[in-house]
Automatic annotation (TrEMBL):
It comes from Tunturiibacter empetritectus. This is NADH-quinone oxidoreductase subunit A. NDH-1 is composed of 14 different subunits. Subunits NuoA, H, J, K, L, M, N constitute the membrane sector of the complex. The gene is nuoA. One of its GO terms (cellular component) is plasma membrane. It catalyses: a quinone + NADH + 5 H(+)(in) = a quinol + NAD(+) + 4 H(+)(out).
Length: 137
């Protein structure tokens, strides 16, 4: 039984081939789209999109702080869902995993406490009160 010796760097050959295949596929799809696709500007393409309102002003205008606060609120509750779903799926097995009967429950209570603090903060700031839009907070 003869062992073939080869450089260690060859272990990365599958990774390099996968990256090259992904790049080739991406370049191929963009190139095919450019070659095959229609490139005619029409009135329909230049018309307003989705909301039906004519665009006015510069698209790079300033946003109020409210916009960013709502975005952070969305992320807060999005992350909450991402953490709660796996927790709920394994909730019955948590005592065997952690060694404590109530650890998983208390752990989620602490996490929901942090979420509640975030919600209380944006509520007190008036972010959720769209009727009284104060512009910048």
């Amino acid at each position: 039984m003869a062992m073939h010796s080869y450089p260690y760097i060859w272990n990365y050959l599958p990774l390099v081939l996968q990256v090259l295949a992904a790049l080739g596929l991406a370049v191929g799809m963009v190139g095919a789209s450019f070659l095959i696709g229609k490139h005619k500007n029409s009135r329909t393409k230049a018309s307003v999109y989705e909301c039906g309102m004519e665009a006015t002003g510069d698209a790079r205008g300033r946003f109020t702080v409210r916009f960013y606060m709502v975005a952070m609120l969305f992320i807060l509750f999005d992350v909450e869902a991402v953490f709660m779903l796996p927790w709920a799926v394994i909730f019955r097995r948590l005592p065997a995993i952690t060694g404590s009967r109530m650890f998983g429950f208390y752990e989620m209570l602490v996490y929901l406490g942090f979420v509640a603090v975030g919600l209380f903060y944006v509520w007190k700031k008036g972010i959720l009160d769209w009727a009284n839009d104060k512009g910048d907070l």
